[in-house]
Amino acid sequence: MSLLGVIRFRVCVHSTKLISSQFGRQLLQPLGIKMSDHNPTIVSSPDGMDVAAMRKKYKTGHEAFVEDHLVAKEPIEQFTDWFKTARQLNGIEEANAMTLATATKDGRPSARWVLLKGYGKEGFKFYTNYESRKSKELLENPFACLVFYWAALSRSVRIEGRVEKLSEEESTQYFHSRPFDSQIGACVSHQSTVIESRDVLTTRDAELKEQYKDKEVPKPDYWGGFIVIPEVVEFWQGQSNRLHDRIVFRRPKDGETADGKLLHQGDDGWVYTRLSP
Predict the structure, then answer these.
(1) Measured between alpha carbons, how far is 155 from 161 in angstroms, rounded to an integer?
(2) What pLDDT digit, counting tens, does each position of 129-185 carry?
(3) Which of 242, 246, 250, 251 is catalytic?
(4) What is d(CA 170, CA 4) in angstroms, rounded to the nearest whole number?
(5) CA atoms of 194 and 225, how far apart (whole Å)
(6) Which end of the chain has fewer surrounding CB within 10 Å, N or C?
């Protein structure tokens, strides 16, 4: 069989797997091969699932998030309003779950889920093991990004900023407010280290529970909190037509002034703007 024949045969068998019909036509036109006008199926996963076609309806155009809908001209109060809505919605089990993205000093990123454990104008707080990968990256490159995503509301909040360790006093106070099992868990796990099996954890867990059953669990030296001091806070509202709403608060640059058109003056030293989706 000639090369052109082979190509024609494979196109016949696999045409439904082409990325798009327009792409297919452009690719095959020089070979004199004509594709049918039907819409090809996009196979975009190893098991044949059409991942590319997965769609979720968000808000409609008349439910857009515009500047007049801001409850405040600074991001912390605006976050409080959205966070309250998320906490009160039955379909959201952990409104305080957030992705924490960090990077090594040479720019290699990593991300994981953590829980927000406090926030205010000073920043957003979470607690972890200081010997974990995320902590090591934060200590050598003290900048992070937090992302909340509340799917039931089609809303997301992204926070970027500098990171600092919380005081030992504050970390200890929070540690002793946790349930007993959680305190023991923090003592058991040397986070991100390699272990032989889960039995290592369960055995140590049982030992420590017996040891501290009638007394206070001491906070490990390697456990404590961080605070992300916000420099950029973006509020994202999804739209079904993908013309999503993005309103971003940030600290102004030196000498920068709000023009009231592209850049608006906010409160507490913030400015805000709208980004194209």
Answers:
(1) 20
(2) 999 999 999 999 999 999 999 999 999 999 999 999 999 999 999 999 999 999 999
(3) 242
(4) 72
(5) 23
(6) N
Task: Report which of 197, 196, 172, 199 is spatially closest to residue 186, judged by C-alpha positions.
Answer: 172
Number of Cα atoms under 13 Å in the Cβ half of residue 9: 6
- Residue 163 phi, psi (nearest 5): -120, 140
- Both tokens of 230, joined, read 């916000």
- For the entire predicted model, the pTM comes to 0.79
| CA atoms lying within 13 Å on the CB side of residue 36 | 10
pLDDT of residue 182: 97
Residue with tokens 């000093």: 105
242 is catalytic: yes
pLDDT tens digits along 176-216: 999 999 999 999 999 899 999 999 999 999 999 999 999 99
pLDDT tens sequence across 237-274: 888 788 788 999 999 999 898 999 999 999 999 999 99
